[in-house]
Write a structure and sequence with these properties.
Blueprint (H helix, E strand, L loop, with lengths): L7 H10 L6 H12 L7 E4 L20 H8 E5 L2 H13 L4 H7 E3 L17 E5 L6 H6 L20 H11 L4 E7 L1 H4 L5 H7 L3 E9 L11 E8 L8 E10 L2 E9 L9 H9 L7 E4 L1 E2 H5 L5 E12 L2 E9 L1 H8 L3 E4 L11 E4 H5 L3 E4 L9 E6 L4 H21 L6 E4 L7 E3 L2 H8 L8 H12 L3 H12 L1
Length: 475
């Protein structure tokens, strides 16, 4: 396979414009089957057309003798870059459309700035199919060449976080009824990056279906995408969104599953995990704190030596081991809290995110942070009240059992994607808020009889019985 490389100028240009060109294959395989039965009923529009790969292939289905007439009555394409407009016109010529006719309906225009009024003067209702620019607001703010886009996020667009969100809200404000968008998967899974947008947009639009890719789709970006099929609601309201999702994991490996997005959880996919930790919080939950920091060690001097790893010093595929001198009080705190949080999947089955025992994995008693704290490092967990050794083992087993249950049920969608790789599964990141929330559901005040039941249920992986038991402890 020939690897295509870009010059630094080409890379900068793509990044500056948020440009990720869509393959014609995406149109033929995933989009055309959904629209083929009503080609004559709409004005097919792409406001961010690039080379025209999401609209022009429609012409393949039109008899050659009718193509020019169909093009003039049913197709409109725009792009902000002149070179893309010219490429789009050339591509239209390949379908038999003369340049002078193609140039009438393929125009240069900044449609993020405002909507082309000419579309409202056409005979047919608009059906918008597009792969819009996507560029995160955080990136735009940090780079000189993209700061000009900050104006898009003013006035009615304050609070949105990406260019594709601006594009979709423009469609909403212009009352476009049917949309097919190729957009980042953070539309479904993002929290702060997408919460406001989903709440605003999904009040007015219903998701008909989603095709989700957990594999690279574009040559020039690592952004993972989904194809969303949207229809404007007759009556705007906040309500459950249910639809079928088709998720491609590797090459032709895919899974189907039903999605249920709730406004209470800002329409974020995987909210069933959030519901669980909210509804099953223990009556007297454990208090959780993180990190053995340098300041704490310095403020608790003493002659007692404790073996630790330094989470800030990773050398030759392992964390550096050292001894710290501390007081008897801090020694007891360190030794009495044996658990740590692994927040990032390693890629191996036995290296998935969850709780682990420090001594077992690192051969030391604690995890020392000599510098800045990082959420991706192993993190020692401190609990109040302190638990006996056997109860901490039970907590670890409980935590990991529940976590794996939801990873299987929700295909890990409540977690943040950390990195796509050739691992047997998509690597995920477990947030510290999620760690705390799940620990807070642990029924640490169980009577011995119920504790033995819980141990048995975990051993036999009987998740439903675990759920029933913890619900009983709260009643």
């Amino acid at each position: 396979m020939v690897k295509i490389s870009l010059t630094s100028n080409e890379k900068a240009k793509r990044r500056t414009f948020g440009l990720h060109l869509t393959s014609i294959d995406i149109f033929y395989k995933y989009i055309f089957p959904e629209i083929k039965d009503f080609l004559d009923d709409y004005l097919w529009v792409d406001l961010y057309a690039g080379e025209g790969n999401l609209i022009l292939p429609i012409l393949d289905q039109i008899p050659k003798v009718d193509r020019q007439n169909f093009f003039l009555h049913h197709l409109y394409l725009f792009d902000v870059q002149e070179d893309m407009v010219q490429k789009c016109i050339k591509n239209a010529e390949k379908y038999g459309i003369p340049e002078e006719i193609a140039s009438q309906h393929i125009k240069k225009r900044d449609n993020l700035k405002d909507y082309p009024k000419i579309l409202n003067q056409q005979k047919y209702p608009i059906f918008h199919i597009t792969n819009p620019p996507y560029l995160y607001l955080g990136y735009i703010r940090k780079h000189k060449e993209t700061k000009k886009y900050l104006t898009y996020f003013e006035k009615e667009n304050i609070g949105y976080q990406d260019l594709y969100q601006i594009a979709m809200m423009n469609d909403f404000r212009n009352e476009i009824e049917n949309l097919i968008y190729v957009i980042p998967t953070n539309f479904l899974y993002g929290a702060s990056v997408s919460n406001k947008f989903r709440l605003d947009f999904l009040k007015y639009y219903k998701i008909i279906k989603m095709v989700i890719f957990e594999t690279s789709m574009f040559k020039y970006t690592g952004t993972n995408i989904c194809i969303g099929f949207f229809k404007r609601k007759a009556i705007s309201k906040d309500e459950l969104q249910s639809f079928e999702g088709l998720k491609f994991k590797k090459k032709n490996v895919f899974v189907k599953r039903d999605y249920f997005l709730k406004p209470k959880y800002k329409y974020r996919a995987g909210s069933e995990f959030d519901e669980f930790i909210e509804e099953n919080r223990a009556q007297n939950p454990l208090k959780v704190s993180y990190y053995l920091r340098k300041e704490e060690v310095v403020n608790n001097p003493g002659p007692i030596e404790i073996k630790v790893i330094d989470a800030n010093k990773y050398e030759k595929n392992q964390y550096k081991k050292l001894k710290i001198s501390t007081s008897d009080k801090l020694k007891e705190k360190i030794l009495n809290n044996i658990l740590y949080a692994r927040t990032v999947d390693t890629g191996s089955i036995d290296g998935r995110a969850g709780l682990g025992i420090i001594k077992e994995h690192f051969g030391v008693d604690g995890i020392f942070v000599s510098g800045n704290t990082y959420r991706t490092h192993p993190i020692q967990i401190f609990l109040e009240p302190e638990l006996q050794y056997k109860d901490q083992i039970l907590l670890r087993n409980y935590f990991n059992t529940i976590l794996e249950y939801f990873r299987k049920k929700l295909d890990s969608e409540f977690l943040t994607t950390y990195k796509y790789s050739n691992a047997d599964y998509t690597r995920k990141f477990l947030g510290l808020t999620q760690v705390r929330g799940l620990i807070e559901t642990f029924p640490h005040e169980l009577q011995e009889e119920d504790k033995e039941k819980l141990i048995s249920y975990i051993k036999n992986n009987e998740s439903e019985k675990i759920f029933k038991l913890i619900r009983l402890t709260r009643s």
